[in-house]
Design goal:
124 residues; alpha/beta; 5 helices; 32% helix; globular
């Protein structure tokens, strides 16, 4: 289980990664509900290697271009042969999650699922 990473500059400015906040207490929640959670939460599995522009107001093609080659896997041995759950806060066009999944698959992940808190309505 891994959150979509922020670039280090944005993380310093904001002070937190909202995707990580969504999963940081999953283990405690699973224990509370007596659910077995065997998956590891890997906070630093992916790295955002480029400080991309905020995507608010961008069209789908612009978003894809903005995040192209923006991510890398830090330690491919943690990915190889694994099923990965990628966590993000908002899903609009899927450009960010698609790019992250592409990088994870190239590093040997056998499957990548995505879970988000919000599905944005692009018609608004």
């Amino acid at each position: 289980i891994t959150p979509v990473p922020l670039h280090v500059r944005r993380l310093r400015k904001r002070g937190f990664n909202q995707a990580y906040l969504l999963i940081r207490k999953w283990r405690k929640i699973a224990e509370y509900f007596d659910v077995c959670l065997t998956a590891q939460i890997e906070r630093e599995l992916l790295k955002r290697n480029r400080d991309t522009s905020a995507q608010v107001g961008m069209k789908k093609a612009e978003r894809r271009k903005n995040v192209k080659n923006a991510f890398e896997v830090i330690n491919p041995s943690k990915v190889k042969g694994k099923r990965i759950l990628l966590v993000d806060d908002v899903f609009t066009t899927g450009s960010t999650s698609d790019e992250c999944a592409k990088v994870l698959m190239k590093s040997g992940a056998v499957h990548v699922d995505v879970i988000t808190l919000v599905r944005a309505d692009r018609r608004i």
